[in-house]
Design a protein that fits this description.
The structure holds 2 protein chains of 2 kinds. By secondary structure, chain A is α+β, with helices and mostly antiparallel strands. Chain A has helices at about 25-30, 60, 65-70; strands spanning about 5, 15, 50-55, 80-85, 100. The chains are: A alpha+beta, B alpha/beta. The complex binds flavin-adenine dinucleotide and FE2/S2 (inorganic) cluster (FES).
């Protein structure tokens, strides 16, 4: 199963095995990783699942859709690495993915 | 984090009967035992928020459904389509409640509240004592009071069990009649067309979404569904559900009949306030609370779909909202009030997915006197901004997330944008929001 590393803003790491097909947000919520609220449950409606994808993985996670990009435009502390984790599907190609969490989702 | 760990550790010791009670008090006013009735989105969230906020005493979460707290929105979307299983529907994995030493009693119904002695009776007669009680009992779908409404093939739609019962008949070629054109009815209709069912929507009002949006936005959704092959019978009244062994059609008040294999009714809901009424709490459409979700009894809180509270961004008008946002916010507010912490409130928000249309709503549109359109409905990407006087009060954004989030921020901070500026699509929303005052 692909492994994903979530790094909290404090630096604390969580390494989680996520089945392909789930989203990066769902895997975090299922394992109670603090720092991803995901209020809308993955409907791309709340922007509270914001993560920073590590540079090395940017190409593999692909580009944000225009819908996602418009949501990100209004999130806090957005960088070129910002994504909504509910819009990234886990696959074998993402085995080893590292994402960092923002200070706050609100 | 360390402190949190220590608190949890103590809570575990306590579950095992080790450790003395008085060392564990964390909350003002001697609150050691919290009971939450209703293990839905609001109740489940409240239990976890209390732990996250540092509460180390007993938490008992009583839910009459079989599954641990789960999300309802996907029920009329991906879950109905069979693209999601129950496990993915759960808000948190079932093991979280044990890990957080939250006693989840399910499927168990609470049947009586004794406020004088601060006790809750559950079915079977057992009584549990509380120091603080949270009501999170949600809503009940309005029943179809028609002959034949109990025939196999006729369904209400609220729970995962309802969706499970519908799914086997929700197949290509089946003839579906949806009674009620609210969000849930229209989401079901959209999913049904995508699955190849033959769909008729029967609605008593003159337009779909009549209670929840403007005539213009209703018209847009009517046209979209019609283009997708949904038949509408507006102003139509069902008189009976026909069939012997199972549903064969819906008889209309004017004598007509629509043949059907499957009938799904989404004709609104009533707040579940039986227990609140029984124990004499103040009711105002739902269980009435103050801005911190406290009811007329200071030891009792009410949150989520069953409760009505003053809306900060709307002159403290009492409102009972039915949304995920409201369920989560109520949970945060009640937990904060119990723990003596503060909690800010957000602009209310909601969404609905139909076909490739994402409708995102911020604010409450009731009482608007002017609607301004940004973008063109023909492009299937536009936002309807609602004003009362000069004040922006709500937005319905279709495939326009920037407009949705921008308006949400404006309403949150009490800012507005002149209608002519909003209508100017050549200026990006972000720029407009930055310039607003
Ligand atoms: C099909 C559907 C689609 C939806 N789509 C959206 C959407 O897209 N976006 C959005 O924001 N919102 C949506 N909603 C609304 C949202 O799901 C609700 O607002 C939310 O679930 C409310 O949470 P709650 O905890 O207050 O109530 P509920 O989730 O209804 O939970 C209440 C629970 O309490 C239990 N209960 C009641 N009385 C007792 C008792 N005496 N003892 C024990 N248990 C009891 C009930 O069985 C229930 O499990 C949708 C709702 C439905 C049904
Ligand atoms: S979970 Fe709401 S936008 Fe990702």
């Amino acid at each position: 199963m692909p492994k994903i590393t979530y790094i909290e803003h404090s630096g604390k790491e969580h390494v989680i095995e996520a089945p392909a097909g789930q989203t990066v947000m769902e895997a975090a919520v299922k394992h109670a990783v603090p720092g991803i609220d995901a209020d809308c449950g993955g409907a791309c409606a709340c922007a509270t699942c914001h993560v920073y994808v590590d540079d090395a993985w940017l190409a593999k996670t692909g580009e944000a859709s225009s819908m996602e990009q418009s949501m990100l435009d209004f999130a806090n502390d957005v960088t070129d690495n910002s994504r909504l984790s509910c819009q990234i599907k886990v696959s074998d190609a993402l085995d080893g993915l590292v994402v960092r969490l923002p200070k706050s989702q609100h | 984090m360390l402190a949190q760990g220590a608190i949890r550790f103590k809570a575990r010791l306590r579950m095992c009967g080790i450790g003395s009670k008085h060392t564990l008090r964390m909350t003002p006013g001697d609150i050691n035992r919290i009971i939450i009735i209703g293990a839905g989105q609001a109740g489940g969230e409240a239990a976890l928020r209390l732990r996250q906020g540092g509460f180390s005493g007993d938490i008992t979460l009583i839910g009459e459904e079989t599954a641990p707290p789960y999300q309802r929105p996907p029920l009329s979307k991906k879950y109905l389509a069979g693209e999601m299983d129950l496990e993915r529907l759960l808000l948190r994995p079932a093991s979280v409640y044990a890990d957080e030493t939250i006693a989840l009693l399910s499927p168990v119904r609470a049947v009586w509240i004794d406020r004088a002695n601060k006790r809750v009776r559950i079915e079977g007669g057992r009584e549990l004592a509380y120091d603080a009680l949270i009501l999170a009992t949600g809503t009940r779908p309005r029943q179809l009071t028609l002959v034949g409404a109990d025939l196999p093939g006729a369904h209400l739609f609220r729970t995962a069990a309802d969706a499970d019962a519908i799914r086997p008949g929700f197949v290509s070629g089946a003839r579906l009649v949806v009674i009620g054109a609210g969000y849930i009815g229209l989401e079901v209709a959209a999913m049904a067309r995508q699955k190849g069912l033959d769909v008729t929507v029967l609605e008593a009002a003159a337009r779909p979404l009549a209670r929840v949006t403007s005539p213009e936005v209703s018209g847009f959704f009517l046209d979209e569904h019609t283009a997708q092959g949904v038949r509408f019978l507006l102003g139509g009244q069902p008189a009976l559900i026909k069939g012997k062994e199972r549903v064969t059609g819906v008889g209309l008040a004017d004598g007509g009949e629509i043949p059907a294999d499957l009938v799904i009714a989404g004709i609104g809901v009533n707040p579940e306030i039986t227990l609140a009424q029984q124990c004499g709490l103040r009711i105002d459409n739902g269980v009435a609370t103050d801005a911190s979700c406290r009811t007329s009894d200071p030891s009792v809180f009410a949150i989520g779909d069953c409760a009505a509270r003053p809306m900060a961004h709307y002159e403290n008008r009492m409102s009972r909202l039915e949304s995920v946002h409201n369920a989560i916010e109520g949970a945060k507010l009640a937990a904060a009030a119990i723990l003596g912490q503060t909690q800010s409130v957000e602009t209310p928000w909601f969404w609905s997915d139909q076909y490739d249309l994402k409708l995102q709503i911020a604010g409450l549109f009731q009482g608007y006197d002017r609607m301004v359109l940004r973008g063109d409905m023909a492009d299937r990407a536009f936002a309807a901004f609602y004003y009362r006087g000069e004040k922006l009060i709500a937005v319905d954004a279709v495939n326009r997330p920037g407009e949705y989030l921008g308006a949400k921020m404006l309403i949150q901070s009490g800012r507005s944008l002149a209608p002519d500026l909003i209508a100017d699509i050549s200026r990006p929303m972000k720029e407009l929001v930055a310039a607003a005052n």
